[in-house]
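fold description:
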Amino acid sequence: MNSIDSSEEKAKRHIRRLIWLYFWLLLIEGALRKWVLPDYSNPLLLVRDPVVIAIYLLAIPARVFPKNGWTIALVVIGFLSLFATFLQLWPYLSPTLIALVGGYGFRSNFFHLPLIFVMASVLRPKDVKRFGWWTLLILVPMSMLMVAQFGAAPDAFLNRTPGGEGEMMMSALGKVRTAGTFSFVVGVAAYLSLATGYLVWALLKPGLYKSWLLTVAGVALVVGIAVSGSRLTVGACAVVVASLVLVIILRRDVVNRFGRALIIILILGLVVSRLPVFHEGVNVLSTRFTEAAAGSEQSVARGLIARVFASFEDAFFVLGKAPFLGYGLGIGTNAGAKFLTGHSGFLLTEGEWARIFLESGPVLGLAYVAWRLALVGRMGWLCVKSVRLGNLLPLLLFSSSFLPMISGQFGQPTILGFTVFTTGLALAARNEETLLAPSVAGAPSTRVRPAERIVRGRSVYADRLHGQGAPHDQSNGSADR
């Protein structure tokens, strides 16, 4: 029995290393496609897929591959959708082309999602904290790169697009929407919102990270948002901060911690407000918001809300017009269009739900959308329970990923990667609750049973490992690296 346990723990260590590799590839994937290996931009879209395959192959013998209802439902919907794709496209395309297009669609919609549950099974509280330490530290060079891109011309080397095709999206006043190391600005929005969650958590939990790290990360975050030139980035970070309203409602004792955090924020604001690049960035953002509102003849707030709901209106409009079996998985993705026509683009529609309904048909499409909505609902409920126990991190991280989980464009690899990774971190952050009961005011003095968590089907050893005994980690993330 001990040899089996030892083998499983060794496999888990390898899985944790591969999750770190997934994280680093997620951060540098765009840089590889833009600057290092632009000729291999298209194959690099799949650079993280071999890592996911290796994780799954190790997770099966380690008995941490999810065997819950979530995965079973996902597998059934996925393979039925893939089978329907072959049936629908067989008269028109070669089997090889169907396999390429349908395979990419299967990869985008289904393949990465079980990683969420694997991360929840193998990541320890100290692993989650280390990811936060690196996320905050990398904010500094990321922000510096974005400032350089903000000041460079749209056709400069720093503002190259993946493979050298097309031009970087523009913001306002001749400035690009800075993408950092990512392929497009959506990567910046996802990364900065993840960093916002960790930063807010650290400000409300003194001693978690060193003060110098929080200071430089806070300045870098504000500057990065300012020079992003993106409404999406502003909105993504604002949603994370807005989740504190729910925290205050559920945990009144947290209000006392806001005093220290507010002082730090005011000091950082004073420092950042004196930076010329911040003023210029805010001016560009303000112009971008104004121009977008003027173009839609609506206020800024109403314009943003209308933009969100318009995608859902389009989805239900096409729902009744889609073929019963759909047009086939992958047809609506940029990569699928590249396989079929030789050029990237949206052959069906840009909205995620509309793409799903047109690709998979009304039945399987609705089933897949319902799966994503159900996961969001379940995760939201678990995060609320975590807040009641004094564990704020799951909610802060989930607030960064729940909107992309609902309607994010999974055909875009960066959106898919950050949604899966951040949701996995949010679920893994709940592992702290399976240790000794929280000692915060108002928290129950009992252990949280592993059965209450979303991950089921663990081995006895895994339940023993995560459910008992391990001492609470209080070391600094930088020292542990």
Summary: DSSP finds 19 helices and no strands in the chain. The radius of gyration is 22 Å. Residues 2-480 form one domain.
